[in-house]
Design goal:
The chain is mainly alpha-helical and about 500 residues long. Helices cover about 55% and strands about 10% of the residues. The strands form 5 sheets. The protein has a 3-stranded antiparallel sheet. The chain folds into 3 domains: about 160 residues, Fumarase C, Chain B, domain 1; about 220 residues, Fumarase C, Chain A, domain 2; about 55 residues, Fumarase/aspartase (C-terminal domain) (Ribonucleotide Reductase Protein R1, domain 1, Orthogonal Bundle). The protein is built from 17 helices and 11 strands. A hairpin with a 2-residue loop joins strand 4 and strand 5. The N and C termini lie far apart (about 65 Å).
Length: about 500
């Protein structure tokens, strides 16, 4: 359908029979498949009639049977926005007829409905510029646009290269689609997820602000804090991560579109890149702008490596938070047991009644994946040679997966774990009262060495700090009670 001389044929294909036969050689059944002949610069190739793609997509489908990771649909949708805007700009610059631009827009709109996702079958493991996926989008749009044009009585047809790809190259379009997809994912998924998690944590800060507990450093008892103060640290981590992502986004808003093949903008008319960014910003509501240097935008992906680095920081924060929750809830009788987690599902197939910290474990696995993704993105980003980085698809795969995973797990952990956490107030109080590190309050009064003597005496003789002080005759009971008060050791109880 993408070429005017497309031919239709029917071929009989032998398919393995689904019924088992007793004979060693199973019978085969025949199935008729209709296909059309598509042409490109390399000649003819068969494409199944029901498919919207053309020759170049089919060649890629046959030549790159590698893995199961298909090009993220976010990239396809990013391309749909890109192609619609490019058609508008080409039309505005009198480079494309109005009915062609309208047909391309209609086709792009259909892609964005999500109803034809299966017409984008290509795997990530293809050419490093993403040319095959670029052409997959071009061919599908051309096919749909030509159906539209024919239905309206037009006889002139749209070509995937000459019209859908007009004023563009894979080398500037694919990175632009990446930035569109990543921008949308950050704003529509990541920011809402992080803000939700922060809100849940801040509610826990308020709920736990009055509960004094033993602090811990080096996995050893330390001076007291409140459970609210501890959770305030988690909430602050999330707030800072939101700020980090926000600070990075201006580099992601910078687009390569207009650089075409090598950054010079060959075959791209003057004013195209500026009008493209202006129209795209109006369409999606993000402050896109042409990259300050198009050679940098094609040959490197430093902005996405930078963003991945911030995603890696989020994973680092999530790992710390999940691990703390994991340990604080350990037990229920033989661990720290300072908090209770929601009991969402049975924890063991062999130990009845066991409940595990499953949300914390899921979060830490996500963190491991995101950290690994960042390693891949870092290496891929370093492979910009001369005028092009040819690791674009794998960067797209990994950064979008990281955004999706972090967003999903933030909602899951917040709604299925954090919201339902309650404090074991009795145990918290018991731990504070027997903590040896309350001795720190004595240090300004009797000195560090005598205070250390008190702590060691209390531990060795299994007595309270008060008894140790009295036995060693360092203070009177009244002096001890006035000096050692956990509430006075908290500093500000506000988060």
């Amino acid at each position: 359908m993408t070429n005017q001389d497309t031919q239709n044929r029917t071929v009989k294909i032998d398919m393995p029979s689904s019924n088992k036969k007793s004979q060693s050689d199973q019978n085969v059944q025949s199935k008729e498949i209709s296909y059309r002949i598509e042409k490109d610069t390399m000649g003819e190739i068969n494409v199944e009639m029901s498919r919207y793609w053309g020759a170049q997509t089919e060649r890629s489908r046959q030549n790159f049977k590698i893995g199961t990771e298909r090009m993220p649909i976010d990239i396809i949708y990013g391309f749909a926005h890109l192609k619609a805007i490019a058609a508008d700009v080409n039309c505005a610059l009198n480079l494309l007829p109005n009915h062609f631009a309208e047909a391309i827009n209609n086709a792009a709109t259909k892609i964005l409905t999500g109803t034809i996702d299966d017409h984008f079958p290509l795997v990530v493991w293809q050419t490093g510029s993403g040319t095959q996926t670029t052409m997959n989008v071009n061919e599908v749009i051309a096919h749909l646009a030509n159906l539209d044009l024919k239905a309206k009585g037009y006889t002139d047809l749209i070509h995937p290269n000459d019209h859908v790809n007009k004023s563009q190259s894979s080398n500037d379009s694919f990175p632009t689609a990446m930035h569109i997809a990543v921008t949308h994912a950050v704003h529509q998924r990541l920011f809402p997820a992080l803000r939700h998690m922060q809100n849940v944590l801040e509610k826990k800060v308020a709920e736990f602000t009055h509960l004094i507990k033993v602090g811990r450093t080096h996995f050893q008892d330390a001076t007291p804090i409140t459970l609210g103060q501890e959770f305030s640290g988690y909430a602050a981590q999330i707030q800072l991560n939101i700020e980090r992502i926000q600070a990075t986004m201006p580099r992601v808003y910078a687009l390569a579109q207009g650089g075409t093949a090598v950054g010079t903008g060959v075959n791209c008319p003057k004013g195209f890149k500026e009008l493209f960014s202006e129209k795209l910003s109006a369409r999606l509501g993000y402050p896109f702008a042409p990259a300050l240097n198009l050679f940098e935008a094609l040959a490197s992906h430093d902005a996405l490596v930078e963003l991945s680095g911030q995603l890696n920081v989020i994973a680092t924060s999530f790992m710390k938070i999940a691990n703390d929750i994991h340990f604080l809830a350990s037990g229920p009788r033989c661990g720290l047991g300072e908090i209770f987690l929601p009991e969402n599902e049975p924890g063991s197939s062999i130990m009845p009644g066991k409940v595990n910290p499953t949300q914390a474990e899921a979060m830490t696995m996500v963190c491991a994946q995101v950290m690994g993704n960042h390693t891949t993105i870092t290496f891929a980003g370093s492979q910009g040679h001369f005028e092009l980085n040819v690791f674009k698809p794998v960067i797209a795969l990994n950064i979008l997966q990281s955004i999706h995973l972090l967003s999903d797990v933030a909602f899951s952990f917040s709604d299925n774990c954090l919201v339902g956490i309650t404090a074991n107030e009795i145990h918290l109080n018991e731990n504070v009262n027997k903590s040896l590190m309350l001795v720190t309050a004595l240090s300004p009064i009797i000195g560090y060495e005598k205070s250390a003597h008190v702590a060691k005496y209390a531990y060795t003789h299994n007595v309270t700090l008060k008894k140790a002080v009295l036995d060693l005759k360092y203070l009177t009971e009244t002096q001890f009670d006035k000096t050692v008060d956990p509430k006075q050791m908290l500093g500000s109880t506000e988060a």
